[in-house]
Design a protein that fits this description.
alpha/beta; Ubiquitin-like (UB roll); flat
């Protein structure tokens, strides 16, 4: 099936506007449970709000930062403040590793792709449930890089390279931001998911030009097979709930439509949660049987 890439970008841009329900016939198994309000289950609270910590660690301060740093001092202060203002859970070594990873991520957001971070510290106070520590951090920034270009290969369903490139919210020549690149990779997967490519994967291969201080990406696309919907079943909810799913047997599977359906009735649930949405794939026929299990609300 030939697909227009620009249509994919448009679909992503107006995702919230494209929510008109389609009343579709489906293979349905019913239960006696009634829907309450606009959703089957209440919104799921975040793990930070609902899970008590077994061993909480706070950072009393960062005593010193060694290594020549190009990043402006004001930005450094903001980063270190964000590190010390939060609490952590785990052993001293686990917290130290988490802080190092957070610092590494902050520097890589600002183009320091090869940054090296290490730390040491001491425990100030300790109790069975709480610990206060101080850290000394060493950062080797390395060079600051900008994005060279982004290219794609093995993309057959979407051949418009500009449409794929526009899924990445970063321009050639911008500071190389690892998080922004990750968002682009996520957008790429979502775009293919709207077209039925359930098993889509991509590998971003980097090429670094040390002289120009640029990083270019060559994204190797593995589209896999395009799937159509074979059947749709639901358990633990009345049949009319499926009226909110704008998808029917015989249509190309669309991950975004499934996500809208689940977010309406199970707010906060991951669309890929196998306990809620079970997908039975038939690779040979290129079809998928969907089963939605609403018999138990997610644990808060």
């Amino acid at each position: 099936m030939r697909c227009l890439g620009r249509a994919v970008v448009l679909a992503l841009a107006c995702a919230t506007a494209c929510q008109t329900p389609v009343h579709a016939q489906s293979s349905i198994s019913q239960s006696n449970r009634d829907a309450e309000g606009s959703g089957i289950c209440p919104p799921v609270r975040s793990s930070q709000d609902s899970q008590p910590s077994d061993h909480e660690v706070s950072i009393a301060g960062i005593l010193g930062v060694s290594g020549p740093l190009q990043m402006p001092a004001s930005e450094q202060d903001q980063i270190f403040a964000s590190i010390t203002q939060r609490s952590y859970v785990g052993s001293f070594d686990e917290v130290k590793e988490e802080v190092e990873e957070r610092l590494r991520d902050e520097w890589q957001k600002r183009g320091f792709f090869k940054v090296q971070v290490s730390s040491d510290g001491n425990v100030l106070t300790m109790s069975p449930v709480r610990e206060r520590i101080v850290l000394t951090v060493h950062i080797e920034e390395g060079l600051q890089y900008r994005l060279g270009q982004i290219a794609f290969k093995n993309n057959k369903a979407i051949t418009d390279a500009d449409a794929l490139r526009n899924l990445f919210p970063i321009k050639d020549g911008d500071i190389f931001d690892r998080d922004t690149i990750s968002k682009g990779i996520k957008n790429l997967k979502e775009a293919y998911g709207q077209l039925g490519y359930i098993n889509f994967t991509s590998i971003p291969n980097t090429t670094i030009n040390e002289k120009a201080r640029t990083i270019s990406l060559d994204i190797d696309v593995d589209e896999g097979k395009q799937f159509t919907v074979r059947s749709i079943d639901i358990e633990g909810a009345p049949a009319q709930v499926l009226k909110d799913l704008a998808l029917a047997p015989g249509q190309i599977y669309n991950e975004h439509l499934v996500e809208l359906f689940l977010q309406k009735h199970l707010p906060g649930v991951d669309v890929d949660n196998p306990k809620i949405q079970h997908r039975s794939l038939d690779e040979r026929s290129g079809t998928v049987a969907l089963t939605f299990d609403f018999r138990q609300c997610p644990t808060e």
